[in-house]
Design goal:
This protein is of the alpha/beta class and about 575 residues long. It is built from 22 helices and 16 strands. It folds into three domains: about 100 residues, Glucose Oxidase, domain 1; about 110 residues, Enzyme I, Chain A, domain 2, CATH 1.10.274.10; about 280 residues, Alpha-Beta Barrel (TIM Barrel), CATH 3.20.20. An eight-stranded mixed β-sheet has the order 1-8-7-3-4-5-6-2. α11 links the parallel β10 and β11. The chain binds phosphoenolpyruvate (PEP) and magnesium ion.
Length: about 575
């Protein structure tokens, strides 16, 4: 049994498929003389397959970005077929009787290391190219699944991977994924968010799980307790079967509240909305009983594809969601690309700190044509439902004004083209950057609402990477520093008569929801599968208790103490949501 961080509830059991990664341990063994020709043939085959893969990727990038960007792959093809490298591999196999993958790995590392040590940026990048190409060849040699294979799973399975890019998770054949288990990752990594949305059990931060299980083995994944058990015994399977039944009974009970309002015992009403990524999420949105969409992560329309979506295509998607959510509103966040969410063709921008780099509104403002197409699509869709627009990762008033100026231009254009849109559509922004929370009063004058993204706000406030399992214990949205930024945001909004929501993962955590309620937020937007539990909890809380908890949490000495205070109230009000074990 391996322990990691539980990030998406549920239990399942099935065959494992291990996704490839070059960085894993390569077994070295001595081969017999009569095995050398077989090993050399394997090498030739793996190189040929890698060549085909590279040509395919190059074709895709050429289509999306043109030949200049795609020329990078010429360098990769040269590395792949480098005669000096291949001669050394042949020598190790044929003369020193080393197995193919160990020989290949040894040579790749030798060349990459030599280049990396030369202290020249250009050569360091070439070292990365060698490792990248080498990894592809090794994946073929080791028979590991590639991301491409995940689109066409033949049977239901648990996916074990070093980490999963949001672009991979988004294209998975969901009907056949029983669970995710990854070496890295944290609670608010997009893989975790996606797993929760899909209701697929997931455990991340399992260390080197990819080198401990093999494709084809059976495992049991427990997304509540955060474990992966390889080859579980019948007794374990039986115990988990019972746990599953108990959870199902509770789910049924809380699902019965679907059509009830999210209102506290003393009559304080909270808007409970859902976070979605694409029109395919409409059925789970509707089933959840959420009052609209508090966060539509529109960037998922932009990844996993060769070309950017057209205005028309986006309009159809936004309209579909708005119509499905009616009469409730839908907050469409303009694309939050960058960080770990990049279209495949942009995936190599070479940024050292992508989360502090070219991301979200910064990309939109830099690419006005792309931004305008999205704004026009949103405005046009606003004629068919209650749409609100929201900008991600705003850090200054200037950015907000630039975004609003672009929006105003789009409105003017549509008016002159005689195309209808909602003239009173609300415009808001996310509070994800500490600097924005600190100037919330200034910003509040020029928006209709704020939505607090606790995932990034926590990461940026505490300097903790939300994707890195090594620092996962430090990722704490209840850190009093984060709570004070939330408090400042709420107060600024109140002063200007604006409403405030929270759409980060903290909103869907029953232990954290009481403190958010007590801080005075008007809306909680959570993954659709968490809507029933949060509603169940809200309907058992009283506002004065939540306010007292929030005050105590703000003055707590640590994130752990604040969380304990908030969880104690939640547990007292709804013990069913905190079962032992
Ligand atoms: C957040 O940062 O809390 C948020 C909701 O945005 P995302 O998770 O998409 O970065
Ligand atoms: Mg964010």
């Amino acid at each position: 049994m391996y322990r990691g961080i539980p990030v998406s509830a549920g239990v399942s059991h099935g065959k494992v498929i291990v996704l490839g990664d070059a960085a894993r341990t390569i077994l070295r063994r001595e081969i017999r003389a009569d095995e050398t020709s077989g090993e050399l043939a394997r090498l030739q085959e793996a190189v040929a397959r890698t060549r085909r893969d590279l040509l395919e990727v190059q074709r895709q990038v050429t289509e999306a970005l043109g030949t200049h960007e795609a020329s990078l792959f010429d360098a990769h093809l040269l590395v792949l077929e480098d005669e000096m490298m291949l001669a050394e591999v042949h020598h190790l196999i044929g003369e020193q009787y080393i197995n193919c993958e160990a020989a290949y790995h040894q040579v790749v590392e030798k060349f990459a290391k030599a280049l990396g040590e030369l202290g020249d940026d250009y050569l360091r990048e070439r070292a990365a190219d060698i490792r990248d190409v080498g990894g592809r060849v090794l994946d073929h040699l080791l028979g590991r699944a590639t991301e491409q294979d995940l689109r066409h799973l033949r049977e239901p399975c648990i996916i074990v991977a070093p980490d999963l890019a949001p672009s991979t998770t988004a294209v998975l054949d969901r009907t056949r994924v029983l669970g995710f288990a990854t070496d890295g990752g944290g609670t608010t990594s997009h893989t975790a968010i996606m797993a929760r949305k899909l209701g697929i059990p997931a455990v991340v931060g399992l260390g080197d799980i990819t080198s401990r299980v093999r494709t084809g083995e059976y495992a049991l994944i427990d997304g509540h307790g955060g474990t992966l058990t390889v080859n579980p015994t019948d007794q374990t399977l039986f115990e988990y079967g019972q746990l599953k039944q108990r959870r199902a009974a509770l789910d049924e009970r809380i699902a019965a509240l679907r059509d009830q309002p999210a209102i506290t015992l003393d009559g304080h009403s909270v808007t409970l909305a859902a976070n979605i990524d694409q029109p395919e999420d409409i059925p789970s949105l509707v089933d959840s009983g959420a009052h609209g969409v508090g966060l539509f992560r529109s960037e998922f329309l932009f990844i996993n594809r060769r070309e950017l979506p057209t205005e028309e295509e986006q309009y159809v998607a936004y309209r579909q969601v708005a119509e499905a959510a009616a009469p409730h509103p839908v907050v469409i966040r303009t694309m939050d690309l960058g960080g770990d969410k990049l279209p495949p063709a942009w995936a190599r921008t070479g940024e050292q700190n992508p989360f502090l780099g070219w991301r979200a509104i910064r990309i939109s403002l830099a690419l006005p044509e792309v931004f305008e197409a999205q704004l026009r699509a949103i405005l046009r869709a606003s004629a068919h439902g209650r749409i609100r627009i929201m900008y991600p990762m705003i850090s200054s008033l200037n950015e907000l004004r630039d975004a609003n100026a672009t929006l105003e231009r789009c409105r003017d254009d549509l008016r002159s083209e005689g195309i209808p849109f909602d003239e009173s559509m609300q415009v808001g922004m996310m509070i994800e950057v500490p600097g924005a929370a600190l100037i919330a009063e200034t910003l509040a004058r020029e928006v209709d609402f704020f939505s607090i993204g606790t995932n990034d706000l926590t990461g940026y406030t505490l300097a903790v990477d939300r994707l890195n399992e090594k620092v996962a214990p430090l990722f704490a949205p209840t850190h009093p520093g984060v709570l004070r930024l939330i408090q400042m945001t709420v107060e600024a909004a109140r002063k200007h008569g604006r409403w405030v929501g929270v759409c980060g993962e903290a909103a869907g955590d029953p232990g954290v929801a009481p403190v958010l309620l007590g801080l005075g937020v008007d809306e909680l937007s959570v993954t659709p599968s968490s809507v029933p539990a949060i509603k169940f909890l809200l309907r058992r809380l009283r506002m004065p208790e939540a306010v007292t908890v929030a005050q105590a949490a703000l003055n707590a000495e640590s994130a752990e103490e604040a969380l304990k205070i908030s969880t104690a109230l939640a547990r007292k009000a709804a013990p069913e949501l905190f079962p032992a074990g």
